[in-house]
Amino acid sequence: DIVMTQSPDSLAVSLGERATINCKSSQTVLYSSNNKNYLAWYQQKPGQPPRVLISWASTRESGVPDRFSGSGSGTDFTLTISSLQGEDVAVYYCQQYHSTPYTFGQGTKLEIK
Amino acid sequence: QVQLVQSGAEVKKPGASVKVSCKASGYTFTNYGISWLRQAPGQGPEWMGWISGYDGNTIYAEKFQGRVSMTTDTSTNTAYMELRSLTSDDTAVYYCARDEGWLKWGQGTLVTVSS
């Protein structure tokens, strides 16, 4: 199984500042045949299901604010929130869909400083 | 838009089975698979398996092999997940999700296992 490891476990950022969350996979999630990274990012607020923000490591889903961006390739990935808003308080997860079983990072809890 | 509506909360005794339903709308059911996941209190999501909306083929996570069954009814665009031999460790919110690799989730079904 591919192990996904996020850092940090929790993060406190001031409103309007940048937030950066990292995700590392134990094996590459890049398919060389199509040069795509099989990596998604989710946001989960209390009492709600996870909501997909980013697919293919860097493709923002429809309706997701452009302050959210994803980057990285192979085994190292980053989710960046360029200017933190109050509604961004949540737990964030990365997930690989390169191979089954799909696996998730342990989550990063983002709070306001 | 894509909508997945799951059945309501369940309370089960140890050793029992539970069957959760997931009714899909807003897309062509047979064009996508459905993954089932669960999330224990305070934990991250755990993938349980996948079923094709087209032909019912399944892939189960090794952890749940022999204890889980996933089925679909294409006449009603509904997917089902049955988990048997429940223990307290199975207490969790269970989710279905439309699977494109990345996942679009239903609202979740709380399953509580308690004597």
Please provide a written account of the structure.
The complex is a heterodimer of chains A (113) and B (115). Helix content of chain A is 0%, strand content 51%. Chain A has 113 residues and is mainly β. In chain A, strands 2, 6, 7, 8, 11, 12 and 13 form a seven-stranded mixed β-sheet that branches. In chain A, strands 1-3-10-9 form a four-stranded antiparallel β-sheet, with no helix packed on it. The N and C termini of chain B lie far apart (40 Å). Chain B is globular, with a radius of gyration of 13 Å. In chain B, strands 2, 4, 5, 6, 9, 10 and 11 form a seven-stranded mixed β-sheet that branches. A four-stranded antiparallel β-sheet of chain B has the order 1-3-8-7, with no helix packed on it. Chain B has strands spanning 3-6, 10-12, 18-25, 33-39, 46-52, 58-60, 68-73, 78-83, 92-100, 102-105, 109-113. With 115 residues, chain B is mostly beta strands. At the A-B interface, strand 7 and strand 12 of A face strand 5 and strand 10 of B.
Helix tally of chain A equals: 0
Most extensive interface, chain pair and sizes: A-B, 19 and 19 residues
Distance between the termini of chain A: 36 Å
Overall number of strands of chain B: 11
Our Rg estimate of chain B from Cα atoms comes to 13 Å
| Beta-strand residue fraction of chain A | over 45%
Mean pLDDT of chain B, to the nearest integer, reads 97
Number of strands of chain A: 13
